[in-house]
Amino acid sequence: MKLPRFNYHRPSTVAQAVALLAERGPDAAALAGGQSLVPSLALRDRRPAEIVDLNGIEDLVGVESSDGVLSIGAMTRQRVVELDETIALLCPLLAAAVGRTGHVSVRNRGTIGGAIAHANPAAEIPTAALALDAQVLVVGQGGEHAVPMGELLSDPFTTTLRAGELVTALRIPLPTVHTGYGFREVSHPVGSQPVVCVAAAVRLRRDGLVRNARVAVSGRGAPPVLVDVTASLTDGNAPDLIAGAMRFVAEAAEGHGPGPEYCRAAARKLARAALAEATGGRYGEES
After folding, report:
1. DSSP bridge partners of 48
2. Less Cβ crowding at N or C end of the chain, within 10 Å?
3. Exposed/middle/buried for residue 66 (C-beta within 10 Å: 0-12, 13-18, 19+)
4. For residues 165 and 117, what is the distance between their CA atoms, to the nearest angstrom?
């Protein structure tokens, strides 16, 4: 199917892109990797009059680690993040989540910022970013500011970004040596949009007890939900809390996949596995 007609712009700086988007308003759409926008154009789900291509902005590409923060440029390809040795060492949860995002052909073109701004409720990258307490750098005509991941996602495929604003980077606080991660999902078939996705980040004390535990759970009907299971891990009911959070996600997805009870059961099972992985087997599978 042919794409609808539109005016094409390829700025070379963030300032130029912001100015174009602000000037064209709701008639403009930003093009990152194109893995979501181009199919929606072909299907006529979206008909923007102006396309602002971000692929010429070199400042939005790259991975840096400094001052206890891992920063990933919005236009960094997902495949680059998946294979980056620094990310694999410092933030394996993100590497695992990116590696389960679609197929390799999708990750070769898809970008980190595009996945975040698209706000697919079942997407792996926003779910992992929420568990990691990540912030999203956003720039607009008023300047640049940081938005917590949980505040950026408002509804399925909807963010709190204002007209003319762009995601410029994902910033993740680097873990301590006693932080472990776990990531699990179920999708039918493998490589398709997940039915349930669970990402866990658990910080342990030197004696092995839990200092802090963040678990993000997502599905097809609502933005990822963050569950604080710090106190409940030692009581053995953390998977039940996560399954409870999944009820909200699953009920929001009613009519778009398996029912709430299936999703709750899957979330409970995936949570046990993710928590066991994050804690080296101390918590999770036997809870």
Report:
1. none
2. N
3. exposed
4. 10
Give the model confidence (pLDDT) of 225-258 as tens digits.
888 888 887 777 788 878 777 776 666 555 556 7
Summarize pLDDT for 119-145 with one digit per residue, the tens: 998 899 999 999 999 999 999 999 999
The pTM (predicted TM-score) of the whole model is 0.91
Q: How confident is the model at residue 201 (pLDDT cuts 50, 70, 90)?
A: very high
Q: What is the set of domains in the chain, with CATH numbers? A: 7-53 (3.30.43.10), 63-173 (3.30.465.10), 180-278 (3.30.390.50)
**What's the one-letter identity of residue 228?**
D
Distance CA 117, CA 123 (A): 11
Q: How many CB atoms lie within 10 A of CB 146?
A: 12
First to last CA, the chain: 51
If you search the block for the tokens 């695992």, which residue do you land on? Answer: 96
CB 212 within 8 A of CB 202: yes
